[in-house]
Amino acid sequence: MAQATGAKAVIQIGEEDTYGAGHATPDGKLLYCSQFTLKKDQNMIRPKTLTSSRGVGRSMRGNINVQGNLGVELNAENTGILFKHLMGSVDTQRLRSLCAYLHHWHLALVGLWTQVDLGSDISGSGRYLRGFGVRISDATFNLAAEGPCDVSFSLVGVDVTPQSSSYDSSPTDTGATNFSMFDAAILEDGSAIATVKPGNIKIMNNLATDTYCVGNTNKRRSAAEGQADVSGSITVLFESADMMNKALGTDSSTLKVTFSRGDGLGTAGNESIELFVQNLDYKPATPEISGPGGIELTLDFEGFKSGSDLGLRIVTKNAVATI
Questions:
Q1: In which element (H, E) is residue 81 found?
Q2: pLDDT above 70 covers what percent of the chain?
Q3: 248: how many CB neighbours lie within 10 A of its CB?
Q4: At CA 267, angle to CA 261 and CA 270, rounded to 5?
Q5: Beta strand ranges found along the chain (DSSP E)
Q6: 112-117 and 10-15 as β-strands: parallel, antiparallel, unpaired?
Q7: Cα–chain-centroid distance for residue 99?
Q8: 305 CA to centre of own chain
Q9: 3-class DSSP state for residue 38?
Q10: Average pLDDT of 270-290?
Q11: Section 176-180 average pLDDT
Q12: 170-199: buried (b, 16+ CB within 10 Å) or exposed (e) per residue?
């Protein structure tokens, strides 16, 4: 048979009703991604018992570790379930008089199942690889001067098992139209800024992954979330000392990145996504002169909670009614 290829792989994702055990009536969604490396590894533990020879007895199986990365090019239609399980709960409202919906994500966490269909070149058990108890450990939104906004999600899970049939034979297909960085606009402290070069925004859920228990069949029992850390970095052309002085002083700031096409109100072809770091402090820094060319300033930042603002807000407007 022919070798399986990533080009032919079909990936589904869905919510569990019991952590680590999938869903009684799975409702899968096709996942559009550039990379999916979730995989299972298991320790092999060699015995130390002396055998009256130089030979060593058979190893026993140890704990299972499921982890990997998911790469996505940012779009408004297909990322909802990922944002939900990165941030937690979601409030959805229909926008009046429009076939469009506003989704507002809040910090919390729940569990996912995943499935990779390796294609018809593989038959029998093993064509489908099903992951359970999958949670999003962190995500990084990478901002560049051109191309898509690449988003990298780090995943951890309970187990991956080979299957011979699909978990959901008719998954929902929302489609996906990637945003270009040319669709982006950035506000720093409420004012438009046009001098940002590379940048990133990262959220970490600080999952507790060392939850292996005696008699728990080698698997994680849970992956409880800790506090959500929001951080990132931006590099700007040094055309003003304002941001440097803000970093060197004690004033906090905000950073909002909005991706929008058409009117951005959420109907098909008019989607938008807003990434809003609601409160941040820049790490004090000054620019360096590395040669005769233009000077740049790189500032790392940390988000923080203030009142009801938890540090990061994501708002999506699209034509997808249910996440």
A1: helix 80-87
A2: 94
A3: 13
A4: 5
A5: 10-15, 29-30, 35-36, 39-45, 60-73, 90-94, 101-105, 112-117, 128-143, 150-157, 159-163, 184-188, 191-192, 196-204, 229-237, 253-260, 272-282, 296-303, 312-318
A6: antiparallel
A7: 27
A8: 21
A9: coil
A10: 95
A11: 96
A12: ebeebebebbebebbebebeeeebebbeeb
Q: Which tokens is 30 given?
A: 């096709």
Burial degree of 221 (CB within 10 A; 0-12, 13-18, 19+): middle
Residue 226 has phi, psi (to 5 degrees) of -105, -155
User: Is 150 in a helix, a strand, or coil?
Assistant: strand
The DSSP bridge pattern shows strands 253-260 and 184-188 to be antiparallel
| Cα–Cα distance for residue pair 172/81, rounded to 1 Å | 12
- pLDDT over 60 at 225, yes or no: yes
Cα(68)–Cα(237) distance, rounded to whole angstroms? 35
Residues 6+ away with beta carbon under 8 Å from 132? 16, 20, 21, 22, 113, 157, 158, 159, 160, 161
**DSSP H stretches of helix in 159-304:** 242-248
Q: In terms of DSSP bridges, do strands 184-188 and 159-163 run parallel, antiparallel, or are they unpaired?
A: unpaired
Q: What stretches of 26-149 adopt beta strand conformation (E)?
A: 29-30, 35-36, 39-45, 60-73, 90-94, 101-105, 112-117, 128-143
CA 287 to CA 282: how far, in whole Å? 14
Q: Is residue 165 part of a domain?
A: yes
Query: How many structural domains compose the chain?
Result: 1
Residue 276 lies in a domain: yes
The mean pLDDT value for 243-252 works out to 95
Q: Within 10 Å of residue 305's Cβ, how many Cβ atoms? A: 14
* Predicted pLDDT at 73: 97
Average pLDDT of the segment spanning 102-122:
77
Model pLDDT, residue 196: 95
Domain assignment of residue 47, yes or no: no
190 belongs to a structural domain: yes
Domain that holds residue 231: 6-40+63-318
The pLDDT of 220-226, averaged and rounded, is: 88
Residue 102 reports pLDDT greater than 80: no
